[in-house]
Design goal:
Oligomer: single chain
Number of strands: 3
Number of helices: 9
Structural class: mainly alpha
Distance between the termini: 72 Å
Largest sheet: 3 strands, antiparallel
Strand content: 5-15%
């Protein structure tokens, strides 16, 4: 299987008009544990494209080298008489969002929307990716697919936050109102970073291991424990700072004086 590939895509150091899938996969694996979710996503897109199932073009991957986000899209495939399969696969880079209106209100509203999305996906009892949903899933393959989706959704939300400028100190002051205890904010963010790292490490192990591997049950338990810690720390940030962001956003929704009124008052 061949396809056009350039080192500028951020996945490997190979720069060639075409590359064998085996070579591309080996180059990815040299990137370390971060390559497992990438390989899983590409495999998923590829397998659905060549099988009698709807092609999964919703796979999102983060390049190990440049940390940019890409959507994996299979555009066409050709099967030759000798059995060789040629697949055209594209990595489409995500674009950053534009700013609308005043920066302060845009930042606060963006944070509230991202926080609400996060809550819908992971924290509510009915969420498909909640802790209870993982605990109750008995099918190993479905469990593995859900772990990959969890990893993908958290990366998407974090990249969306970065694109909206929510990871800056200026945004943090706006969200907390500037009156928050810095030690507490720092401790909350540190707990999030640590538990997120542990969750991603456990997710990488789940994605890489075969469902029939004797080690799968213990890796599954490790994932559940890491997920619980991550959801506790992220849930604390979600509820605490969404509340302050909403309160600060309300203060921006005061009647806006027209230019004429401002002139007359001056």
């Amino acid at each position: 299987m061949k396809g056009r590939h350039s080192s500028s895509s951020g996945y490997t150091d190979v720069d060639s008009e075409s590359i064998l899938w085996r070579e591309f996969k080996e180059a990815l694996e040299k990137q370390g544990s971060t390559a497992s979710p990438v390989i899983y996503a590409i495999d998923r897109a590829l397998v659905t494209a060549v099988s009698n199932t709807p092609t999964d073009n919703d796979q999102i991957i983060k390049a190990p080298r440049d940390n940019n986000l890409y959507r994996v899209i299979v555009t066409e495939q050709m099967t030759f008489y000798n059995g060789r399969l040629n697949v055209h696969m594209w990595f489409i880079r995500f674009l950053n969002r534009d700013w609308y209106g005043a920066k302060d209100t845009t930042t606060l509203l963006s944070f509230v929307l991202v926080a609400a999305k996060y809550r819908f996906l992971f924290l509510e009892q009915e969420s498909e990716l909640s802790l209870d949903a993982f605990r109750s899933e008995k099918d190993a393959k479905i469990f593995q697919a859900k772990v990959h989706r969890m990893l993908r959704e958290t990366i998407l939300i974090e990249e969306e936050s970065r694109a909206l400028g929510l990871d800056t100190s200026e945004a943090l002051v706006l969200i907390t109102g500037g009156n928050a205890e810095l030690a507490k904010v720092g401790a909350d963010l540190k707990a999030y970073q640590e538990t997120r790292g542990a969750m991603r490490t456990a997710a990488t192990k789940i994605v890489a291991v075969g469902v029939d591997d004797p080690a799968f049950p213990s890796i599954r338990d490790e994932w559940i424990n890491a997920l619980q810690a991550f959801l506790e720390s992220s849930g604390n940030i979600n509820s605490t700072y969404t509340t302050t962001a909403l309160a600060n956003l309300i203060r921006h929704f005061q009647p806006i004086s027209s230019g004429a009124e401002q002139v007359s008052k001056g």
